[in-house]
Amino acid sequence: MAHAATRGRCVWLNAGDGGAQLAWLEPDDVSLTYDATRREVTRHASGRRDVIGDDIFTVLAAELAAGLPEDRWFGYFGYAARTDLPARTDRELPDAVWMRPSRIERLDLPGASPSAGGGGPPGSTPGWYRAAFEAVQEHLHAGNSYEVNLTYRARERSALSPLEVFERLWALNPAPYASYLHHDVPGARAFLAGSSPERFARIDAMRSLEAKPIKGTMPRGETTAEDAAAAERLRTDQKFRSENLMIVDLLRHDLAQVCEVGSVQVPSLMAVESYASVHQLVSTVRGRLRPEVRTLDALRALFPAGSMTGAPKLRTMQIIDEVERTPRGAYSGALGWISADGRADLGVIIRTVMTDGSGAYTLGTGGGITVQSDVDEEFAESQWKAERLLRALQG
Fold first, then answer.
1. Catalytic: 239?
2. Contact 208, 312 (CB under 8 A)
3. Which domain holds residue 314?
4. Active site residue 198
5. How far apart (Å, rounded) are the C-alpha atoms in residues 352 and 192?
6. What pTM did the predictor assign?
7. What is the pLDDT of residues 254-267, one digit of tens each?
8. Nearest to 141 by CA among 370, 377, 322
9. For the chain, which terminus, N or C, has the lower number of CB atoms within 10 Å?
10. For 77-108, how does the pLDDT look when each residue is reduced to its tens digit (9 = 90+)?
11. The domain spanning residue 360 has which CATH number?
12. Which of the residues 198, 324, 381, 387 is marked catalytic?
């Protein structure tokens, strides 16, 4: 993978079947970046920068339509990528990066050495988090939202390169949507190293659209008995189950906007899935796209992931914009690939560190808040979700 990174623009994605996709760009290959503050989509190729639009979904759809059937684009949409939804813009990284590589290879996955356990004891809950939590509770009790995904940023400096951070993160915390994105272009630098377990959306050759929202997380136990008890608590706890059900209802609504009537189903509700450091409560929502709906139309309708906003989406995003202290940037967005033949597979950008290459890294963490939530428990959850990311940065 290191040789691809020397080209300046590349991406590595876990393919989920024991292999990985490595794609990289030559100088005359095209990449797109989006600045939500300026509302500018910029096209990068052969050292040139040209502003070609104001909506990344529209521009990317046009590029796919104009290209070859075998074209495949790799990249991400940041949280503020949709111009019609309330989200603060981020000046640290582009709000979207998409790349059309001329070289794509299949690779064996690098070695991983996962271990159980969710990290050390959390610190005390700081006042700024308590204030944000109380503001969320006021909105919940007023009926403005049923669930709010409250997040915050952590910042760390590291002497490690972004690629070294990703290699450490993969060894510590392998995940289905592990990814590394490298866009080393002056004025539009973005490096993401992630180990996300959550599917944002997959569209297959039969135009079946599937999302797998995660709501409900427990750290792995240190012993077999503790681990089994943690999984059972996750499976039966009423707070976790109500959180998950609210997001499933939101996803059913989102899919119904673009899927054939009667095709939206929930084939799996609240299944416990176990990963290196956590157990997660995962549901599957599936539908069949209507004939006139393009892939980018469907992805836009679902974006951002309901698990990262809460319900209802628009009003809850307004609350998030009010109570969170910093923009989310790429965090809470979606990263993966989109093919000109209509297929796509993207994960939610969680468990991910981000940098512009300066040695300063940011990561987002948080969780869903309902009227049943406890402030200290929620802050503790946000800390152990971030624990392996911080370990990867510490070298």
1. no
2. no
3. 2-394
4. yes
5. 7
6. 0.95
7. 999 999 999 999 99
8. 370
9. C
10. 999 999 999 999 998 999 999 999 999 998 87
11. 3.60.120.10
12. 198
